[in-house]
Design a protein that fits this description.
This protein has 245 residues and is an alpha/beta fold. The chain has helices at residues 33-43, 57-64, 84-91, 114-124, 138-141, 193-203, 222-233, 240-243; strands at 2-6, 27-28, 31-32, 48-53, 73-78, 101-105, 108-110, 128-133, 143-146, 152-155, 158-159, 167-177, 207-211, 216-218.
Length: 245
């Protein structure tokens, strides 16, 4: 399976740290944040990765090169005008050759068994699988409601009507999808992939939620960046095992 890392964001919440350095290159434990996510992909056998770029994109490409130093093959998708999660993935669609692929944010630090996620996706046979996590503030992040079979019913209150008991979780920014999910995403225009998810759920397509329990941090503000660094120092997430592969 191929993968995409979303790295085109402006990093406005992290200013001034991101004025002259793109958020994916902010260091955590001596390496750029994006490198830890690339090493997570490699740990689970994913070696072909496309990275979308916008804000200070050349610096990211200069830092990562062709990926050979990390045991990967990297391709880049430049966005002269930022396209958002929907438009950015749509632009990269030819890279996936019509096959399911995995998407990962560059600005999260997490520990997850991606192999289990991919197995779950294939076993369920849905259009897509969203990695979800329990969080008391799920609504603040964007509530995702799932039924007892882990099928996604609603995202931010939009989707299908109540059909019974449901659990509310938050989207962790990791997903596996079939390119069919992109069929109505406009090319060359900014959009959110969440809108595509809601549209397909309303059509009756099966989207499932994989429940993760490991470490997760959105490194989106200076405070959360400092917190993530403290978590690494405290051993709440083991990055050394990725570096030593």
């Amino acid at each position: 399976m191929k993968a995409m890392i979303l790295a085109a964001g402006l990093g406005t919440r992290l200013r001034p740290l991101t004025n002259h350095r793109p958020k994916p290159l902010l260091p955590i434990a001596g390496r750029p944040l994006i490198v830890w996510n690339l090493l997570l992909l490699r740990r689970h056998g994913i070696t072909e990765v496309i990275v979308n770029l916008h804000h200070l994109g050349p610096l990211i490409e200069e830092a990562l090169g062709d990926g050979a130093a990390l045991g990967l093959r990297l391709t880049y998708s430049y966005e002269p005008v930022i396209l958002g999660t929907g438009g950015g993935i749509k632009q990269a669609e030819p890279f996936f050759c019509g096959e399911p692929f995995l998407v990962l944010n560059s600005d999260t630090l997490l520990e997850i068994d991606l192999g289990a996620v991919m197995q779950f996706h294939h076993r369920q046979g849905g259009l897509a699988t969203m990695v979800l996590r329990d969080d008391p503030e799920a609504a603040r992040w964007g509530a995702v409601e799932v039924d007892a079979d882990q099928r996604v019913l609603r995202i931010n209150g939009r989707g299908v009507a109540d059909v019974g008991p449901s659990a509310t979780r938050m989207f962790a920014g990791v997903h596996v999808m079939h390119p069919k999910l992109l069929r109505d995403v406009p090319a060359g225009r900014e959009s959110s992939i969440i809108d595509a998810y809601i549209r397909e759920i309303e059509r009756g397509e099966a989207v499932f939620g994989f429940r993760m329990t490991g470490y997760w941090s959105d490194v989106g503000t200076p405070q959360r960046y400092e917190e993530a660094q403290r978590d690494v120092d405290a051993g709440r997430i083991d990055l050394a095992s990725r570096a030593n592969l």
